[in-house]
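Objective 1.3, modelling of assemblies. Example input:
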Amino acid sequence: MHPISYLRADSVEAAVRAVRGDPGSAFLAGGTTEVDLLRQHVRTPRRLVDVNRLPLTGIEELPDGGLRIGALARMSDTAESPTVRERFPMVAQALELGASAQLRHMTSMGGNMMQAVRCGYYRDHQAACNKREPGTGCSALLGVSRGHAVLGTSEHCIATHPSDVAVPLAALDAVIHTRTLVGERRYAFGEFFLEPGSTPDREHPLEHGELITAIEVPALPMARRSLYLKVRHRGTRSHWSPSPPRSA
Ligand SMILES: Cc1cc2nc3c(=O)[nH]c(=O)nc-3n(C[C@H](O)[C@H](O)[C@H](O)COP(=O)(O)OP(=O)(O)OC[C@H]3O[C@@H](n4cnc5c(N)ncnc54)[C@H](O)[C@@H]3O)c2cc1C
Ligand code: SF4
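Predicted structure (tokens):
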């Protein structure tokens, strides 16, 4: 048994203060990563600070045409937002390719950015894994490496970040907004996801207790492009259709 306590935060400040002030605390959003890892003994927080009541669920178009997605917007709400579907279709499409409908109803956009790698050795608390336990080695290097990275790897870790929606967000130069005890910070997408190098346990530049509050996507012209062809049948609404295979 691993005793654990639970706190429901009623403000952004309270959530940040609670986690920042206790190295054994972690944020809890949809719980689809955090509770999984708890059950697998991969993470052992002493306290979960529930952020689900915080007013960070908005999905809004900015005056300059950009998009602001609150960190607690669910993946499904984001994918179904008319603004996202019309103005940023590749974001909606990438979200719909991820997980399952049930999971997308639970999962938050902030949690999606912070989700853990799917490497089986990371999730097996008895296997050597530099990301989970620095200095123990990387079981995947000589073990099962299917689905692992081919670019940006190191001799210490070859896992990929598993978020589907991170791909179009990276292409669209999204910015991640956070809150700390001393104020707000912004991270360009490219500097938010750290390559493993010699410290694969450090995946983001965030300090302990730093809360993602929103993801902003600028209104680049390519934001209107789709991952698919858009087709229209006579008398029906237009809809997305997978691209036909390219001829050689
Ligand atoms: C069976 C299964 C299949 C999946 N398939 C896919 C897939 O195909 N594609 C895909 O992209 N994802 C997939 N996922 C991952 C899923 O998208 C993530 O688990 C989910 O997005 C995490 O969000 P959450 O709200 O549940 O976060 P939680 O589990 O609550 O939190 C995840 C982590 O983020 C931290 N955190 C949460 N919110 C914040 C915040 N606002 N600021 C800072 N830290 C925070 C938590 O402390 C925790 O460490 C799958 C998950 C499962 C279980
Ligand atoms: S690839 Fe990374 S996550 Fe997987 S075992 Fe190696 S160090 Fe751990």
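Residues 57-116+162-224 form a domain with the Uridine Diphospho-n-acetylenolpyruvylglucosamine Reductase; domain 3 fold (CATH 3.30.465.10).
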